[in-house]
């Protein structure tokens, strides 16, 4: 009887209903819809992100119209020159100074024409330019490895780093008397003065550029075997290029100033007549028109070298790093 009752109790026990798939699907349907919508939103966001990255990577090369180039590049300097000429002529008309001290622009132009007709204008300019470029090239060859050595060897940096900074602040004209005594009145004097003025600037510019190179670049270079000279050539110099180019520009400025100081002081037939010597000759003859012409020619050559060599180099460095547009 007991077993029979037990069996009956078991039979009478309520049996749990099996889960209804339709009911569960109905309960999960809102969650599935939300998940599906979120997936579509994520794909949309990723597509937008990829499109944005593609837009950043795409380099749009646009050649500026001639009119725009004239307005932005040519018109401002021409306007500045015309303004200076107008103020200069007004000062002459107002008799701010005697004509022997303040010549008119037309008198300076006449002196330029006289030099052109005499056939010595280009020889005067080329004498100075050739000395300056050769001296700067030698300073580049010496200053670059010196800057690398100072930047990478702590002992060398502690030993001669302050000396380089002091030499950079020393006026170049101070070296001319010593160079004349040591080397005599010849081209070696000119080149020595240029080197002493330009090498510290180039070396310090490279040191400043290397100091700004992230250490991660050097570690990454070592992992691929770029050590020693290979690391300096393929890692350090490219990474330090902005500071290096700034040092080169400053080095050229020091080279040009040093050369002019040497030409003003040192005089010899072996040296020829450069711009500095021409300027001093005009001063000795009290020819202010010639003095003004010499000053303007020195300024013109300095600006021309910067526009033809260093400005394009600087723009290339900035463009390679995405800092300027190609249309500039």
Automatic annotation (TrEMBL):
Membrane protein topology class: Multi-pass membrane protein
Q: What is this protein called?
A: NitT/TauT family transport system permease protein
Example of a GO biological process term: transmembrane transport
Annotated source species = Actinacidiphila bryophytorum
- Annotated membrane-spanning segments are 74-94, 124-151, 163-185, 191-210, 231-248, 288-310
UniProt-annotated stretches for the region Disordered: 1-41
Q: Sorted alphabetically, which PROSITE patterns does this protein's record hold?
A: ABC_TM1
| Broad class of where this protein is predominantly found | membrane
Give the lineage. Answer: Bacteria, Bacillati, Actinomycetota, Actinomycetes, Kitasatosporales
Q: Which family does it belong to?
A: Belongs to the binding-protein-dependent transport system permease family.
UniProt cross-references to InterPro entries, sorted A to Z: MetI-like, MetI-like_sf
Q: Where in the cell is it found?
A: Cell membrane
Where the record annotates domain ABC transmembrane type-1, the positions are 125-309
């Amino acid at each position: 009887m007991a077993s029979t009752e037990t069996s009956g109790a078991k039979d009478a026990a309520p049996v749990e209903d099996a889960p209804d798939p339709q009911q569960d699907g109905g309960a999960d349907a809102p969650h599935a819809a939300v998940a599906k919508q979120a997936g579509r939103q994520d794909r949309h966001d990723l597509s937008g992100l990829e499109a944005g990255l593609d837009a950043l990577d795409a380099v749009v090369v646009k050649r500026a119209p001639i009119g725009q180039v004239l307005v932005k590049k040519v018109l401002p300097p021409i306007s500045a020159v015309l303004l200076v000429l107008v103020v200069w002529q007004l000062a002459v008309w107002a008799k701010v100074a005697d004509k022997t001290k303040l010549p008119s622009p037309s008198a300076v132009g006449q002196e330029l024409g006289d030099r052109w007709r005499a056939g010595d204008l280009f020889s005067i300019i080329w004498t100075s330019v050739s000395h300056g470029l050769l001296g700067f090239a030698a300073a580049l060859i010496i200053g670059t490895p010196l800057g690398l050595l100072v930047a990478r060897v702590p002992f060398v940096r502690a030993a001669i780093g302050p000396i380089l900074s002091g030499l950079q602040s020393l006026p170049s004209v101070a070296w001319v008397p010593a160079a004349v005594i040591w080397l005599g009145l010849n081209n070696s004097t000119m080149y020595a003065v240029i080197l002493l003025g330009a090498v510290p600037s180039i070396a310090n510019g490279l040191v400043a550029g290397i100091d700004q190179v992230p250490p991660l670049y050097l570690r990454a270079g070592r992992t691929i075997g770029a050590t020693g000279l290979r690391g300096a050539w393929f890692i350090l110099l490219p990474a330090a290029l902005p500071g290096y180019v700034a040092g080169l520009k400053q080095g050229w400025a020091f080279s040009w100033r040093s050369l002019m100081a040497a030409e003003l002081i040192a005089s010899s037939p072996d040296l020829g007549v450069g711009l500095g010597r021409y300027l001093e000759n005009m001063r000795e003859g009290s020819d202010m028109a010639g003095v003004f012409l010499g000053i303007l020619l020195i300024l013109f050559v300095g600006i021309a070298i910067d526009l033809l060599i260093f400005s394009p180099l600087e723009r290339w460095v900035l463009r390679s790093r995405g800092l300027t547009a190609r249309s500039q």
